[in-house]
User: Which sequence fits this backbone?
């Protein structure tokens, strides 16, 4: 039910097909983030039209609101948000450590206060899996502890706990129509990352995620960690780099052997009036666009670029019209999905290694990290 | 270029075809409002899909932002907002009197302060027409003065000024690809309304609008005014009841001989979590919908009702997701357009008079006025 077949290689880059109960994913792939069971401002129909296939949703958020029991009662996440294609949920770990008001970690799990109303909650590996089974995404994640990359001692403690929790998640998992990914942690220490990659690879999971990157370390540090981790991971398992990234990150990540990416960047930038473009990241609120009759990107095939001028989008932003966010989200998501399609084609025809620096050159104006 | 042909009658109700340079309008018709060159939260593609044909936009708002000169420079409103179907602009009169911070009326025109930044501006009948020619809608409105319906003296003064301004608008108008509608005023006084209907009918305009209703008077008072005005208006001209209405208003208006309606109600209700339904106006934020797997309206053919449950829409509202507003706007607009299609069919096959009370019964739960 969850076969992963590598169909082409280009140096360390891979193209493949990952089959799930809700359809095949052509890898490498970029997944839009639908935090609260909606990719912000977009209908599923708009998402399909822009070529999205895998959508990520957040366990922490859905557990708090509307509640995973309610989602299960209403037939699961696919049915609830009417997304008929593959879905992925994270474990809640990252949000508990980054978003919740206070948290108390022990070896059993984490007690935290909701960022919404301050109410007290507890996640354990078993609870995270149970919630993710209620949500019913095709791909689910082991419960992990994400550390400050610059705190070596804590990175080690968190990594070891992540390993023990991964084993408990595997034991806790029941549904056959879901696959669990273990998560490699270890901060920015090559030795810890090596240990973690070896340990997580030794587990019986269908896929492997790399967590704890793009959380404050430098781009060089992230690349070094990928260079340490990826060669250790079994070739046969899909590899998911969590919460990454920019256009540049996708190019660099695929080059290092990553198959799956997700990031809130395209929709978050849209809310801040920014668009990916070959000229660099544009802030469409800028007065220089007031009379600009060009689309955001003349080469883009998205609905926004096929239809509207920069001048119109700027007007919507200045007039505080919500349609601006919708149009920019459509473009930014399509830009990354289109880039990923180009990358996949290049990997498949063996030209990725040659085209990579040209692609990076084309996209490096857009590469500002947003952590 | 602007023929109006009445194709069927049922008592005082009429069905017709009003041709414009951007396509034929099948009347009676309901026009969604796109105040700032966008029907809030919806793409033109979503608007087309829900069956909208005529869209109204506001001269006052577009004059202030982004400026009518800029819209003209970018090819006019149709091109600017990418709405290829017929459009209508109001004259700015209503907003100047209801929205601007301060205003000073004289026989020449109105000086007012922008509600956005307090800057000073002046509209005259000639200026309103020039702005509307810059915007380039198919149907444009004479500059009028909208009075407090309960102030008889002011209603008379404003009506007389509206008449003089209508004549000046006719003189000022230059573009052959636009039609001008005169506006009947007169508050809630039958004599004033009679005078105004006679005067405006005597002018050489293609269509006639009825203004100054749904601005604080009772429903009975509005009906009385329509009963006074409509029989005076020439049969051959399309009649537009401005800023109205609720589902009930559409039924009552068509029954009195109105052909064109517009109202912000469907999109405004959407922003306040409310939906038209056969059960009455629903507030989808209500906890009772948390587990409700039904669509808003099982008989509705809109994208929202074909796709989503009330439970999901409630979740979006509670989670403050903007998609809620989009989905409710789609439904509410489609509900009125569908109702209008039903009315038109009934008028055409001669059953409207019989069906009217049943239609009213079906919709009177939704009839709360928002004036």
Assistant:
């Amino acid at each position: 039910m969850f076969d992963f077949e590598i169909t082409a290689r280009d140096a360390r880059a891979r193209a493949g097909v990952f089959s799930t109960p809700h359809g095949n994913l052509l890898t490498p792939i970029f997944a839009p983030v639908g935090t609260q069971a909606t990719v912000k401002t977009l209908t599923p129909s708009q998402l399909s039209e822009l070529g999205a296939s895998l959508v990520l949703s957040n366990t922490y958020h859905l557990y708090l609101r509307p509640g995973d029991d309610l989602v299960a009662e209403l037939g699961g996440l696919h049915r609830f948000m009417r997304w008929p294609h593959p879905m992925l949920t994270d474990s809640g770990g990252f949000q508990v450590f980054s978003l919740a008001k206070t948290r108390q970690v022990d070896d059993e799990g984490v007690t935290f206060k909701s960022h919404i109303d301050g109410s007290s909650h507890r996640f354990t590996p078993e609870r995270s899996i149970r919630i993710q089974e209620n949500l019913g995404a095709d791909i689910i994640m082991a419960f992990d502890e994400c550390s400050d990359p610059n705190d070596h001692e804590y990175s080690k403690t968190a990594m070891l706990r992540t390993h023990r929790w991964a084993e408990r998640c595997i034991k806790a998992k029941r549904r056959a129509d879901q696959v669990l990914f273990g998560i490699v942690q270890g901060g920015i220490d090559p030795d810890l990352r090596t240990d973690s990659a070896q340990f997580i690879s030794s587990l019986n999971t269908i896929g492997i995620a790399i967590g704890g990157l793009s959380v404050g370390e430098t781009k060089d540090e992230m690349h070094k960690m990928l260079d340490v981790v990826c060669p250790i991971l079994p070739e046969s398992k899909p590899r998911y780099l969590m919460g990454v990234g920019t256009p540049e990150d996708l190019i660099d990540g695929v080059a290092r052997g990553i198959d799956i990416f997700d990031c809130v960047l395209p929709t978050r930038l849209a809310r801040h009036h920014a668009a990916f473009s070959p000229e660099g990241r544009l802030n469409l609120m800028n007065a220089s666009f007031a009379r600009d009759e060009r689309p955001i990107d003349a080469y883009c095939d998205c609905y926004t670029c096929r239809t509207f001028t920069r001048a119109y989008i700027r007007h919507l932003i200045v007039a505080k019209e919500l349609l601006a966010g919708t149009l920019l989200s459509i473009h930014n998501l399509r830009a990354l999905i289109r880039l990923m399609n180009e990358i996949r084609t290049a990997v498949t025809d063996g030209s990725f290694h040659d085209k990579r620096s040209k692609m990076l050159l084309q996209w490096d104006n857009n590469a500002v990290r947003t952590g």
In short: Chain A has a mean pLDDT of 96. The longest helix of chain A spans residues 323-348. The interface with chain B takes residues 36-38, 40-45, 61, 65-66, 70, 73-74, 80-82, 290-291, 293, 303, 307-309, 311-312, 314-316, 318-319, 321-323, 325-327 of chain A (CB under 8 Å).
